[in-house]
Amino acid sequence: MAKPKKQPRPKAETPKGFRDYFGPEVTERTEMLRTIAGVYHRYGFDALESSAVETVEALGKFLPDVDRPNEGVFAWQEDDSDWVALRYDLTAPLARVYAQHRNDLPTPYRRYAMGPVWRNEKPGPGRFRQFYQCDADTVGTASMAADAEICAMLSDALEIVGIPRGDYLIRINNRKVLNGVLGNIFGEPEAVAETIGAGDPSGEERMQGVLRTIDKFDKVGEAGVRELLGKGRLDASGAYIDGVGLNDDQIEPVIQFLTSKGSSNQETLDNLTAAIGTNAVGGQGVLELRQIAELLDAAGYGPDRIVIDPSVVRGLGYYTGPVYEAELTFEVFDEKGRKRQFGSVAGGGRYDDLVKRFTGQAVPATGVSIGVDRLLTALREKGRIHSEAHGPVVVTVMDRDRMADYQAMVAELRNAGIRAEVYLGNPKNFGNQLKYADRRDSPAAVIEGADEKARGVVQVKDLILGKQIAENATLEEWKERPSQVEVPRSELVATIRKILDGQG
Amino acid sequence: MAKPKKQPRPKAETPKGFRDYFGPEVTERTEMLRTIAGVYHRYGFDALESSAVETVEALGKFLPDVDRPNEGVFAWQEDDSDWVALRYDLTAPLARVYAQHRNDLPTPYRRYAMGPVWRNEKPGPGRFRQFYQCDADTVGTASMAADAEICAMLSDALEIVGIPRGDYLIRINNRKVLNGVLGNIFGEPEAVAETIGAGDPSGEERMQGVLRTIDKFDKVGEAGVRELLGKGRLDASGAYIDGVGLNDDQIEPVIQFLTSKGSSNQETLDNLTAAIGTNAVGGQGVLELRQIAELLDAAGYGPDRIVIDPSVVRGLGYYTGPVYEAELTFEVFDEKGRKRQFGSVAGGGRYDDLVKRFTGQAVPATGVSIGVDRLLTALREKGRIHSEAHGPVVVTVMDRDRMADYQAMVAELRNAGIRAEVYLGNPKNFGNQLKYADRRDSPAAVIEGADEKARGVVQVKDLILGKQIAENATLEEWKERPSQVEVPRSELVATIRKILDGQG
Questions:
Q1: Can you give the CATH number for the domain in which A484 is found?
Q2: Does residue A499 register a pLDDT over 60?
Q3: Which residues of B touch A19 (CB under 8 A)?
Q4: Second label for A218, Cα 20 to 30 Å away, from A20, A282, B9, B59?
């Protein structure tokens, strides 16, 4: 008889760019999101959980023009008809939800959402294809009070999860001000305001060049920006970077805009007004910033927390008014050991056209998205996450037939609010049980052999103290094992509690 | 010039079978899962969040044999090479995770997981293609203490979320006992135990028929099962259902097995022992049930909470030992107004072969999955979810230029822990503001016009009382509007608090 063909074993791997999250990685994130949700809720925002799968048509941006939708999303065809995709953010689904349910939702509609999103992008170190976002948006109002409220709420949220005042800064700009500056340079201010970059291709190219250059202001400074807007620049590595090719008359207003930041919001706004001149769109942008600044000032959110800053440029094309970004300003060491500012953890702005796609009616909206994983990383870097110090207490199994006794012990401990488990592996090798307790990072192991049972006592091994002794003690001291105590069975819970309280 | 072609508007719809969850639907589920996670954690289980996307190869069951993987999962091909899919449960990913990370995980590994899963099935009323599961599993131990622990933990979890003792029952059976009975009837007990249904096709067909019939025991009773196992049965609708075609000697042991449930676990186990006879596999199954019963008995989980019940048949083919199911025993009205037992909300069992697919080594495992949406429905039916009684307090806008004043009011309320928001829509029509407050289910609206501002007072409208009056009062009474009070601005927070406390 022929040997049956052996199936090759499947590989135990996540798909490329995906990962699993274990223990504290999950619970710390859950706890942080719960805290943020509490802030959002107090501000009157309602929870929304939209479906993870959307039609490609509703997601918009990535309509299938060929056989397969654009890169960037995970999309597939259902039943030889509709293309569907995993959501790539929480904003596009919100626009769909609002358009679908607008008759049942309050106007304005304040909502928050938290959950995973998926991006079909090249994975890299620390860059995954599934990650969490945490958004808050207000749909259905053009009032700048909505934008001011979101910035204030973001400030509250950052502080409540553990970023103290002084360690973060929320910076606000307005896309209209930038559009006004560009309109002054490239002409057709109205057209530029409507669709940035529309117009002749060379003008569009230069406009994009200006935007990219503005984004480098923090890095290369005023002189660098001047060179990059003009003929070009020799960078630190010795490479020559071609410039955008503007003349001095065109460069000047961009520099004036970029360096508008004064010592107060008032001064910044005055500088911006001067930079904009008579440009109508730009003037509207400055007016909006002024309204936001006044509201925040009245609410006590000073420039130590939220500040007008013209150098903020956010990437997404759909912003139409105020844009904002939260940066963590403390320094961390990067992978090469260099000190760096931690950088951005949240951003957002006003997008007035997203719902219009569905309904034909313009629906003004503004909102923020927190990069959950980056914020968690920041909190861990600063030691602001107080995760559990230890794993569960492990009750060892000395006598397999007395499992019920050991289960009674863990039940007692749990009822006292203490995390505890009985060893469920093969109990034959006691060393393995202690190794298991070690791997579980247990604060204590409980031992009750036949002898202890007969005498009505248990042995309690203080594994926290044990570790300290193992690190510092001589072999003699180690052998005396003072970290193990014998106590009456009735004192089990009290003894464990002492160990957990650090008085063991 | 030709009119530019108009793009049709995208439809604002979820894909078929998907839905969105709003406000309390989200927060009530989050809160319930958090409570359950607390129980699991106290039992020593660690959180795990695996990626939502898995390779089809790792998911197993649905290997692509043609161009497109089987129905049942949402799957697509990445980069013309690997097929990937959305997870359809939390157990298959656990097997992959354990195989992948087994060197870094403790053995046994207790883990819990909660999150959405996706099924590419025909949607129906209340049946969606994305839904939540909440699982707890112990991997790496063959000890029946693991199964007993999971059942006890499930019992604790149900009670803590609000299902009181007496309103639920966890029933335990063992697949091996059933295999033993079938082995006695169809012969080749070892082969039957290894792969149920292997053997000659007609035998397999009859075996499946027996399983289906056993599942109907609750519905048709002993006499009905006898008929269905034999020649057939005329059902209530007058239709004749063909029987499995067993003879009386074959029917008897099945009936004996099915009716083994005694007045105590002890009696049930004795009856099962008699039903099994000398069958080795069946004997092992009864022994396992006996161990579980003893452990639960010692831990105080009596048959009012967890009971051995031979009529439990769980669908999944991969269970290899104990199977368990949690039923809610209280009655609800179904869509036709008939009284029904609420039914199953959780189930699970032992599956010893899932990890072996990856590693070649058998890894024993056991676990339970809670149907999150069904449990939530049950809690709502029983009024056991105490959602917020009201929405946020709404501060109305009488004077658009004094937005800062209104924001100061909401800030004060929030700082006092009261959910509050300022109206952000167009304030021109005051009626719309009150309609908004109504739609938000606000407990109170705050009004401060120029006159109130000048006199240092605010108007507070008690909307809870207002609603009561609107329902009961005459027009005269209504016009007096006693539900609106004028208070000093400094007493705003105290006045709102009185209303929230029901003393407004």
A1: 3.40.50.800
A2: yes
A3: 51
A4: A282
